[in-house]
Design brief:
The protein folds into three domains: 163 residues, no CATH class; 118 residues, no CATH class; 106 residues, no CATH class. The protein is built from 20 helices and 16 strands. The longest helix has 15 residues. 39% of the residues lie in helices and 19% in strands. A hairpin with a 5-residue loop joins strand 11 and strand 12.
């Protein structure tokens, strides 16, 4: 059986082992100073169309999504006239020209989700993906702060904090292409692993987060891929224990080198079940010693880690959502809302307004994208009584309410019913 497992797993090893080796800092401030002048490229291009021919009205800009603005930029005929060479330096100057002269270009870069939209666009099949890559390079290199770059992928690293406020760096919003893989291949590999180890799928495949992020970071939605989580074990955030409890972290090491992270899911005598993410594949529930890493990777140095806090707060991990009632799940979702006229939850950004700028297809797309990354929201919406619970909660509000909770509930109601009836808010992907 072990030999068969090894044969089946040989061709998927690359899927499950993804690690960068070093990071470099981009000296963005010096670069930015070197191309602050925007007139230079204009002097080298003759007979340019007027910028006025391509300007958008303020109303059009304000009503457009970030992706729509991006489409306008990369397909604009004047783009390739300004970005006329293959030189990175002149590319950066050229984007400065566009930004200074086309009102919607500057508006795009001022959007919070500009980087996310660009990252998705460069992975698409669009004929303008090269133009989007130029814009992405510009955004990275003109940041006001030095950016930590992962040389393996060329993507920026994002700082996260441990319970003791140490910094750990992670990649964000990774795609299957970033892992040199495809959705279909990962799905096939996922089935092979599930059958080989007879484990249970808890959450579906995703290229955005890995085992270390699932185990140590423990946030939902999770869009971070952590390659080096060792600081969680060295800064006092966790202490090693010999007798595990449900919710403790499990690490699998080859000698002293960390290979895999999981979380203790259940304990029944000597039978310890673990829940963990396997590369881009699913989050699986499996036996302590019955997994790809312990078996094939020979990560047999197994350790348990307990959160090191004096007064341990009641916290709920994603593996516990199934044990909660639908009412409790909705309460958790609503607890993420902010007090002002906007909120960010599960990748949504919602601003209360009198204008309705979306249709049901847009709402469905947004919620479906969010569900793929948010275990809490997906678990709730999979409940057969989700709509009943939502409407019971809505009934507690005044019909004229325009607060955050009410708007959020009304959008979920419309999503489940497949008809957009709520017109008090603007919801957009963040």
């Amino acid at each position: 059986m072990i030999c068969m497992k090894k044969i089946l797993c040989l061709f998927i090893t690359s899927l499950l082992i993804f690690a960068s080796t070093t990071f470099v800092f981009a000296d963005s401030i010096d670069r930015q100073k070197s191309f602050e002048t925007v007139e230079e490229p204009l002097n080298s291009v003759n007979s340019l169309p007027s910028f006025e021919d391509f300007q958008l009205t303020n109303e059009t800009i304000n009503n457009a999504t970030t992706n729509e603005l991006l489409d306008k930029i990369v397909s604009c005929p004047i783009f390739e006239l300004i970005i006329a060479t293959d030189n990175d330096y002149t590319h950066l100057i050229g984007v400065n020209v566009l930004r200074a002269n086309l009102n919607f270009v500057d508006s795009f870069f001022n959007r919070d989700d500009a980087y996310l939209c660009l990252s998705s666009y460069v992975s698409s099949d669009s004929e303008y993906k090269i133009n989007a890559q130029i814009l992405l390079n510009y955004l990275i290199y003109t940041s006001n702060e030095d950016i930590l770059i992962d040389p393996e992928t060329g993507l920026p690293m994002y700082p996260l904090t441990t319970p003791n406020n140490s910094t750990v760096y992670a990649l964000k919003n990774m795609t299957y292409e970033d892992h040199n893989n495809t959705y279909l291949d990962v799905s096939s590999q996922n089935s092979i692993l599930q059958n080989a180890y007879n484990c249970t799928i808890a959450y579906s495949i995703s290229p955005k987060y890995n085992c270390h992020s699932f185990g140590w970071y423990q946030h939902s939605p999770n869009t971070y891929w952590i390659n080096y989580p060792d600081v969680y074990m060295t800064d006092g955030s966790y202490v090693q224990v010999t007798t595990p409890s449900v919710g403790d972290i499990v690490t699998y090491k080859v000698g002293t080198n960390l290979s895999h992270t999981g979380v203790v899911y259940s304990i029944d005598g000597n039978n310890i079940q673990v829940i963990s993410k396997w590369g881009c594949c699913s989050v699986f529930i499996h036996g302590l010693y019955n997994n790809f890493y312990y078996d094939y990777c020979q990560a047999t140095n197994v350790q348990f880690w307990h959160l090191n806090v004096t007064d341990e707060e009641d916290s709920i991990g994603p593996w516990e959502y199934e044990d909660l009632s639908s009412e409790q799940l909705l309460t958790l979702l609503l607890s993420n809302l902010t007090e002002d006229n906007t909120f960010i939850i599960s990748g949504w950004s919602l601003a209360i307004s009198s204008n309705n700028l979306i249709n049901i297809d847009t709402l469905n797309t947004i919620v479906n994208n969010v569900r793929s990354n948010n275990i809490l929201l997906d678990t709730f919406l999979n409940r057969t009584d989700a709509l009943k619970v939502i409407r019971k909660c809505i009934s507690d509000y005044d019909v004229n309410d325009s607060n955050i909770e009410y708007s959020f509930l009304r959008y979920l109601d419309d999503y489940i019913n497949g008809e957009l009836t709520y017109e008090q808010g603007i919801i957009k992907a963040r």
